[in-house]
């Protein structure tokens, strides 16, 4: 979905073009964006609107196209003449991408007489999306509802049900696709309710529960959806219960005839508009909370039936393409005011116990409410239940939390610089993702620092991307290549957010327990590619002493001269000093001391220059083994040698390493019980 900034820019570009139809279409999207933002009521509304107006102020050519208030006409009253057949009813608010995928699977059925689409103030009007997708069919009728800032399923669908002109209604969400055999394999008479059942659904298809086919008269006799339920959850179960009580026989839809397009639960619920500060902020991102709260709320109110008036709408304009409507009376939602304090606490308990296996809340609702107001969710659960949010499993090697989330947020690690730098950043990201229950995605982009693909080096089962993908508007982005930011960064600042996180780094950012043991285990279990393994197998291994000499870029030269990049002045100076103390001559002195203790010890050498290999071979002869090569650049072949070097370095019980070198750091991290001595520090 386009961001607000992109929509304003697209409209500005369209105005500058000679394409009147493009300008008209982009102008419609521009005005729709403003109307939906002005109708939103949440903690970030004012900031979002201010940002939007700043964008317009910078593009004065768009000023004259800001939306103006429209007087509404008569109340919308659908035609009451009903014919035999099927009306497909769907609603959409910013799910245009899903609708464009699913709509053709509905239209392909000749049994479908009409498709009613209620466009609930989508930023990009549905009519524009369908035009761009080339979807044109006389059976499509669009009811565009303006000035809605919040998705309200019950109000939207009840409008669509009333607009239907056939005696049977197929209620289908915009993310549901119909199979070619749908009508042949399902009963569809007016006296029956054929509905999705999450208990019978296939894996990953539980959200088909909201799909149903029913007679229009039977549906409107129970007054459609309960319009008191204005957030995600329990709306369909409440309706099914009222229909069956009214004598409508329910049958499960054939699960092979409908399919749900997979997407995050955050597109169903009103996800946080700002960083969660308390347990209450976090628990409201759980679908189970809203299901439990709406179930309580519906049962505690007077019955929803035909005596309760549905939401009324007035006509703003009518055209062959769409009917534009607006609510007869303004309606705003503050989700914090839904349910009493005790009802919300009881719903929170239900959500916690449902979402986290083994957790049982042992205190009263009053205590739950206070704990969620004053603590993070993790700390609140520890205080009110029989165990912490993420139960801990003790082993001899590592203490790490175990648990699960309904919808795991992603940690995207954009690995930077050379091989050692990338590996240490990836290992740190892996540990953080394991501990904080995130899905890890590695971005490994070839560049002048590392001119090879990830799969040329590793045989890896995880998710690796070879380019930097665009991310959602609410993604948290962390740039650890900025030294000032890196020095101030605390990974605990990311623990409480449920949003996706992108970290750009060449450095570790997790330290101590439980992260360190997980990082080391991850590095040890990385499986090299077949080419790298062949190199490893070509030399003697293990050896008694491993030596890594990183001396290019000493005090008289640029320590980063082989590749461009940005390093601070202090980092340059530290690197120069470290490399000047990593000349192979310093290693000779320490090696001679070790060989004096045991003269038969063997040596494995890895270096960044041919001079070191020649000097070691001349001094130590057959006791030294190494991987011979002719190039010392950042090419794919050289990086395969480099990875083989790292693994061979890690196998020795003693490693003499170079200071200020991520290569030495990674080799030692891959090892088990290895003694590390650093040039310029230990010798």
Give the SSE map:
Blueprint: H1 4-16, H2 20-39, H3 45-57, E1 83-92, H4 96-107, E2 112-120, H5 126-133, E3 140-146, H6 153-163, E4 166-171, E5 176-178, H7 182-185, E6 192-195, E7 212-215, H8 216-221, H9 235-245, E8 249-252, E9 258-260, H10 279-283, H11 287-300, E10 313-318, E11 322-327, H12 341-355, H13 365-374, H14 377-384, E12 392-394, E13 399-401, E14 410-415, H15 419-435, E15 439-443, E16 463-465, E17 476-479, H16 483-488, E18 501-505, H17 515-525, H18 530-537, E19 545-549, H19 569-580, H20 584-597, E20 603-607, H21 610-620, E21 624-625, H22 636-650, E22 654-657, H23 662-670, E23 675-678
Parallel strand pairs: 1-2, 1-4, 2-3, 3-11, 6-8, 14-15, 14-18, 15-16, 17-18, 19-20, 19-22, 20-21, 22-23
Antiparallel strand pairs: 4-7, 5-9, 6-7, 10-11, 12-13
Helix pairs in contact: 1-2, 11-12, 12-13, 13-14, 15-17, 15-23, 18-22, 22-23
Description:
This protein is α/β, with parallel strands linked by helices. Among the domains are: 227 residues, Alpha-Beta Complex (Spore Coat Polysaccharide Biosynthesis Protein SpsA, Chain A); 94 residues, no CATH class; 150 residues, Rossmann fold. The chain is 37% helix and 16% strand. The strands form five sheets. It has a nine-stranded mixed beta sheet, sandwiched between helices. A five-stranded parallel beta sheet has the order 16-15-14-18-17, covered by helices on one side. A five-stranded parallel beta sheet has the order 21-20-19-22-23, sandwiched between helices. Helix 23 links the parallel strand 22 and strand 23. Helix 1 runs antiparallel to helix 2. InterPro entries: Galactosyl_T_C, Nucleotide-diphossugar_trans.
